[in-house]
Amino acid sequence: MPLIRPGTTVDSMVATLADDIVHGRLAADTPLDEGAIGNRFGVSRTPAREALRELNAMGLVQRLPNRRATVTLLTPKKMREMFEAMAELEASAARLAAERMSVQERQTLADIHHKSSNLVQRGAVEEYKDYNAFFHRLIYIGCHSDYLAELVTTIKYRLAPLRRAQFELPQRLHHSWQEHDRIVSAILEGDGLGAAEQARAHIAAVGQASTHFAGAEQL
Asked: Which of 68, 128, 185, 202 has the fewest Cβ atoms nearer than 10 Å?
Protein backbone atom coordinates (compact mmCIF):
# COMPACT_ATOMS: atom_id res chain seq x y z
CA MET A 1 0.00 0.00 0.00
CA PRO A 2 1.32 3.49 -0.80
CA LEU A 3 2.31 5.75 2.05
CA ILE A 4 -0.11 8.59 2.67
CA ARG A 5 1.44 11.90 3.66
CA PRO A 6 1.92 12.60 7.40
CA GLY A 7 -0.79 14.68 9.03
CA THR A 8 -3.62 12.83 7.32
CA THR A 9 -6.85 13.27 9.26
CA VAL A 10 -8.87 10.36 10.63
CA ASP A 11 -11.70 11.22 8.20
CA SER A 12 -9.43 10.95 5.18
CA MET A 13 -7.95 7.71 6.52
CA VAL A 14 -11.44 6.30 6.91
CA ALA A 15 -12.40 7.42 3.40
CA THR A 16 -9.28 5.83 1.86
CA LEU A 17 -9.64 2.52 3.71
CA ALA A 18 -13.38 2.39 3.06
CA ASP A 19 -12.85 2.93 -0.66
CA ASP A 20 -10.22 0.16 -0.65
CA ILE A 21 -12.75 -2.20 0.94
CA VAL A 22 -15.64 -1.26 -1.33
CA HIS A 23 -13.51 -1.63 -4.46
CA GLY A 24 -12.06 -4.98 -3.35
CA ARG A 25 -8.50 -3.80 -2.81
CA LEU A 26 -8.92 -5.02 0.75
CA ALA A 27 -10.76 -8.33 0.57
CA ALA A 28 -13.18 -9.70 3.16
CA ASP A 29 -11.47 -11.29 6.19
CA THR A 30 -8.23 -9.35 5.57
CA PRO A 31 -6.71 -8.56 9.00
CA LEU A 32 -6.21 -4.87 9.77
CA ASP A 33 -3.38 -4.05 12.15
CA GLU A 34 -3.20 -0.65 13.85
CA GLY A 35 0.56 -0.53 13.46
CA ALA A 36 0.47 -1.31 9.74
CA ILE A 37 -2.26 1.27 9.18
CA GLY A 38 -0.28 3.82 11.16
CA ASN A 39 2.79 3.16 9.01
CA ARG A 40 0.80 3.48 5.81
CA PHE A 41 -0.67 6.84 6.75
CA GLY A 42 2.32 8.14 8.68
CA VAL A 43 0.42 8.43 11.97
CA SER A 44 0.50 6.89 15.43
CA ARG A 45 -1.64 3.99 16.61
CA THR A 46 -4.20 6.33 18.20
CA PRO A 47 -5.68 7.77 14.97
CA ALA A 48 -5.32 4.34 13.34
CA ARG A 49 -7.39 2.87 16.17
CA GLU A 50 -10.00 5.63 15.75
CA ALA A 51 -10.19 4.97 11.99
CA LEU A 52 -10.85 1.28 12.67
CA ARG A 53 -13.55 2.20 15.17
CA GLU A 54 -15.34 4.32 12.57
CA LEU A 55 -15.01 1.64 9.91
CA ASN A 56 -16.53 -0.78 12.39
CA ALA A 57 -19.46 1.62 12.88
CA MET A 58 -19.91 1.70 9.10
CA GLY A 59 -20.11 -2.09 9.03
CA LEU A 60 -16.97 -2.44 6.90
CA VAL A 61 -14.75 -3.79 9.68
CA GLN A 62 -15.45 -6.40 12.33
CA ARG A 63 -13.63 -6.26 15.63
CA LEU A 64 -14.34 -8.99 18.17
CA PRO A 65 -13.08 -8.74 21.78
CA ASN A 66 -9.37 -9.57 22.12
CA ARG A 67 -9.06 -10.20 18.39
CA ARG A 68 -7.57 -8.29 15.47
CA ALA A 69 -9.92 -6.26 13.30
CA THR A 70 -10.79 -7.80 9.94
CA VAL A 71 -12.47 -6.54 6.79
CA THR A 72 -16.13 -7.37 6.42
CA LEU A 73 -18.79 -6.25 3.98
CA LEU A 74 -22.31 -5.04 4.48
CA THR A 75 -24.74 -7.86 3.82
CA PRO A 76 -27.48 -7.32 1.22
CA LYS A 77 -30.07 -7.34 4.03
CA LYS A 78 -28.17 -4.71 6.05
CA MET A 79 -27.65 -2.52 2.99
CA ARG A 80 -31.32 -2.76 2.08
CA GLU A 81 -32.39 -1.77 5.58
CA MET A 82 -29.96 1.16 5.75
CA PHE A 83 -30.98 2.54 2.36
CA GLU A 84 -34.65 2.12 3.26
CA ALA A 85 -34.12 4.10 6.45
CA MET A 86 -32.09 6.72 4.61
CA ALA A 87 -34.79 7.03 1.93
CA GLU A 88 -37.50 7.70 4.51
CA LEU A 89 -35.40 10.26 6.37
CA GLU A 90 -34.40 12.01 3.13
CA ALA A 91 -38.06 12.06 2.08
CA SER A 92 -39.04 13.66 5.38
CA ALA A 93 -36.29 16.26 5.07
CA ALA A 94 -37.31 17.11 1.50
CA ARG A 95 -40.98 17.40 2.47
CA LEU A 96 -40.22 19.76 5.33
CA ALA A 97 -37.80 21.75 3.17
CA ALA A 98 -40.55 22.26 0.59
CA GLU A 99 -42.80 23.56 3.35
CA ARG A 100 -40.30 25.54 5.43
CA MET A 101 -37.48 26.86 3.25
CA SER A 102 -37.18 30.62 3.04
CA VAL A 103 -37.17 32.37 -0.32
CA GLN A 104 -33.41 32.84 -0.07
CA GLU A 105 -32.82 29.19 0.83
CA ARG A 106 -34.86 28.07 -2.17
CA GLN A 107 -32.93 30.41 -4.45
CA THR A 108 -29.59 29.16 -3.15
CA LEU A 109 -30.61 25.54 -3.70
CA ALA A 110 -31.80 26.30 -7.25
CA ASP A 111 -28.63 28.25 -8.11
CA ILE A 112 -26.29 25.56 -6.81
CA HIS A 113 -28.24 22.85 -8.61
CA HIS A 114 -28.26 24.57 -11.99
CA LYS A 115 -24.56 25.46 -11.78
CA SER A 116 -23.77 21.80 -11.15
CA SER A 117 -24.94 20.89 -14.65
CA ASN A 118 -21.52 22.06 -15.85
CA LEU A 119 -19.88 19.38 -13.68
CA VAL A 120 -22.04 16.72 -15.34
CA GLN A 121 -21.16 17.98 -18.81
CA ARG A 122 -17.44 17.88 -17.97
CA GLY A 123 -17.67 14.50 -16.24
CA ALA A 124 -16.06 16.03 -13.16
CA VAL A 125 -16.73 13.13 -10.81
CA GLU A 126 -14.71 14.31 -7.80
CA GLU A 127 -16.17 17.81 -7.95
CA TYR A 128 -19.66 16.39 -8.33
CA LYS A 129 -19.19 14.27 -5.21
CA ASP A 130 -18.49 17.46 -3.24
CA TYR A 131 -21.44 19.20 -4.85
CA ASN A 132 -23.71 16.24 -4.08
CA ALA A 133 -22.85 16.40 -0.38
CA PHE A 134 -23.51 20.16 -0.35
CA PHE A 135 -26.82 19.77 -2.22
CA HIS A 136 -28.19 17.38 0.36
CA ARG A 137 -26.82 19.50 3.19
CA LEU A 138 -28.80 22.49 1.91
CA ILE A 139 -31.97 20.40 2.11
CA TYR A 140 -31.18 19.30 5.66
CA ILE A 141 -30.65 22.92 6.67
CA GLY A 142 -33.80 23.96 4.85
CA CYS A 143 -35.98 21.40 6.62
CA HIS A 144 -35.35 23.35 9.85
CA SER A 145 -35.25 20.24 12.01
CA ASP A 146 -31.86 19.77 13.63
CA TYR A 147 -32.73 16.35 14.99
CA LEU A 148 -33.90 15.01 11.64
CA ALA A 149 -30.79 16.42 9.99
CA GLU A 150 -28.64 14.67 12.59
CA LEU A 151 -30.34 11.31 12.01
CA VAL A 152 -30.06 11.35 8.23
CA THR A 153 -26.47 12.60 8.36
CA THR A 154 -25.50 9.67 10.59
CA ILE A 155 -26.82 7.11 8.13
CA LYS A 156 -25.33 8.94 5.14
CA TYR A 157 -21.93 8.82 6.84
CA ARG A 158 -22.14 5.06 7.32
CA LEU A 159 -23.07 4.60 3.66
CA ALA A 160 -20.59 7.20 2.37
CA PRO A 161 -18.13 4.76 0.71
CA LEU A 162 -20.88 3.14 -1.33
CA ARG A 163 -22.48 6.46 -2.21
CA ARG A 164 -19.15 7.81 -3.45
CA ALA A 165 -18.50 4.73 -5.56
CA GLN A 166 -21.84 4.97 -7.38
CA PHE A 167 -20.58 7.91 -9.46
CA GLU A 168 -18.11 5.66 -11.23
CA LEU A 169 -20.98 3.97 -13.05
CA PRO A 170 -21.61 5.14 -16.64
CA GLN A 171 -24.18 7.95 -16.84
CA ARG A 172 -24.66 8.01 -13.04
CA LEU A 173 -23.75 11.72 -12.85
CA HIS A 174 -26.37 12.49 -15.47
CA HIS A 175 -29.05 10.42 -13.76
CA SER A 176 -28.18 11.87 -10.35
CA TRP A 177 -28.56 15.42 -11.68
CA GLN A 178 -31.95 14.59 -13.19
CA GLU A 179 -33.09 13.09 -9.88
CA HIS A 180 -31.93 16.24 -8.08
CA ASP A 181 -33.75 18.36 -10.65
CA ARG A 182 -37.05 16.70 -9.83
CA ILE A 183 -36.46 17.23 -6.10
CA VAL A 184 -35.59 20.89 -6.61
CA SER A 185 -38.65 21.49 -8.79
CA ALA A 186 -40.95 20.08 -6.11
CA ILE A 187 -39.30 22.11 -3.36
CA LEU A 188 -39.52 25.34 -5.35
CA GLU A 189 -43.21 24.66 -5.95
CA GLY A 190 -43.78 24.05 -2.24
CA ASP A 191 -44.96 20.52 -3.04
CA GLY A 192 -44.04 18.64 0.12
CA LEU A 193 -45.48 15.28 -0.90
CA GLY A 194 -43.89 15.54 -4.35
CA ALA A 195 -40.51 16.44 -2.87
CA ALA A 196 -40.73 13.45 -0.52
CA GLU A 197 -41.64 11.11 -3.36
CA GLN A 198 -38.75 12.31 -5.54
CA ALA A 199 -36.25 12.16 -2.66
CA ARG A 200 -37.33 8.61 -1.85
CA ALA A 201 -36.94 7.58 -5.51
CA HIS A 202 -33.51 9.24 -5.62
CA ILE A 203 -32.19 7.25 -2.65
CA ALA A 204 -33.65 4.04 -4.09
CA ALA A 205 -31.63 4.70 -7.26
CA VAL A 206 -28.52 5.39 -5.18
CA GLY A 207 -29.02 2.09 -3.37
CA GLN A 208 -29.34 0.17 -6.61
CA ALA A 209 -26.18 1.77 -8.02
CA SER A 210 -24.24 1.19 -4.83
CA THR A 211 -24.75 -2.58 -4.88
CA HIS A 212 -22.40 -2.84 -7.85
CA PHE A 213 -19.52 -2.00 -5.51
CA ALA A 214 -20.44 -4.21 -2.58
CA GLY A 215 -20.72 -7.64 -4.14
CA ALA A 216 -24.38 -7.57 -3.12
CA GLU A 217 -27.48 -8.71 -4.90
CA GLN A 218 -29.91 -6.08 -6.11
CA LEU A 219 -31.79 -4.39 -3.29
From this structure: 68
